[in-house]
Specification:
Blueprint: E1 3-8, E2 11-16, E3 23-25, E4 28-29, E5 35-38, E6 43-46, E7 49-52
Antiparallel strand pairs: 1-2, 2-5, 3-4, 3-6, 6-7
Length: about 60
């Protein structure tokens, strides 16, 4: 178990659970048991696996380009 992703006030956050291989949000290595909010478009790395996170919060207008 690397991390837990959960719903936060205005989006989502990740809580790193102190795995052996580490977890990074974008370029920041996470500290165990501390919540880190993240935006859509963030990159999450769990050991050697990289995930690109994209989400839309229901009821909220998407960002304008």
């Amino acid at each position: 178990r690397h991390a837990m992703i959960r719903r936060a006030n205005m989006g989502f956050e990740i809580l790193y659970l102190a795995s052996r291989n580490g977890t990074w949000l974008n370029a920041e290595q996470l500290i165990p048991n501390r919540p880190y909010p993240f935006a859509s478009g963030s990159q999450l790395r769990l050991g050697q696996m990289r995930l690109f996170i994209v989400y839309h919060v229901a009821g909220k207008d998407p960002p304008k380009k």
